Input
Amino acid sequence: MSSFGLVSAVSSNAKVNEKDTQVAFVLFSLYLVSFFLRLPARMPVLGEIRFDLILVAAISYFILTAKSTKTTRLDSASQYLLAIFVYSIVTLPLVEWPGSVINNGMVAFIKGAIFYFFTINLVVNSARLKIILSIFVGCNLLRIIEPLLLNITTGYLGSTTHLGGGDFAGRLAGAPADVINPNGLAFVIATVIPFLHYVFAPTNKKAFFIYLLLVPLLLYTMGLTLSRSGILALAIIAFGIWWKSTHKFLLLLLGTIGLTVIFLNLTDVQKDRYLSIVSDDTRQSYSAQGRIEGWAEDFKVALNRPIIGHGLGTSREANWNVAGKDQISHILWMEIWQEIGLIGLVLFILYLSAMIRNFREASKLIKGRLSSDDFLYRSCQAMQVWLLMNLLFSLASYGLKSYEWYLFGGLSVVLLKAVQSRVSESNIGEDHKKISAESSRRFGLARGINRF
Output
């Protein structure tokens, strides 16, 4: 097939996939808005009709009946996710609370995993990737700004923390219609910053100006959450951005000045809270020490059933029955080990390895082929920094059944395919230019011979 034919075939196939999944993609976009902004909680009528469930059912139907998705091969990440689900079913007779697995664990896992399968089947080109990232960042910015405005106008905080000696301090959580606690709000803030920095800010001067206005607001909101894990996540993001930058000295200088100004403007409670990360001589150091001791307790619970686990979605149940602690493990790896054992933990690590491999392969293909102004280049940078941050956050939060690992796992597949497609088209275009130039040269030479 000629280069023209190959380009035409690739383009035609992409258009067929896009047309075949158009309705499902629109519904998926609507589902993302509803999920992040919790529309059913804000509009009771949507909750009564189970709006999100209707959307999921409709999207699943359109995907399963689309011709373009029937021939899609399962990539390695998909296989590991499917293996976790099948493993959870097969081990039902062996786990301690099979009823909890069926009623809670599997339902919650499916709710998280659908983000992966919807993404890889519906985000079929870079144009759709732009839409999904815009919805993701836009909705999560609203989740941050809403409680901040409530705090400024009404003094809303939404949560408290114990300072010791009978004293308490307020912590900013998500808005009343949201479901995120202060650490969850801090995670949302840390999540959007890489995308604002790499994807949004470089778009134009207006976008960069908006970015400069947003960063202080995000940092101020982070301070109100009193989240130590959030501050550490910001540090990881700053390190990632610094590491990838060609202006390391300038960023180091600006960062030092910024940190000094921020620290000088913190309240006594905030200073005490953040210093407790590295110092035992603070009022709140006991809670930091308590988190470390909690890791040891979680480890003991995991060792209660180390190979098979207690069952998908039973971390809280296991902690209560084994350690007398009424909460889910706040370490992703312990949560997984407690619920689906070492076998399930290995499967999840393999899934993460596949996701990391996708980002690395995309990054290798991009280098030297796409400019730093290209959307795919900037998206890859943002997702890599996000992944680095979230790996740290996994040491302070649960997440086996949360959306983020599955949405970004799907995005890793989409990004790699988009980059491969762009590079292939670029290579074909370069080959065509060479062939055209060679043909022109030969044609010119032939005309010269004929004239002679």
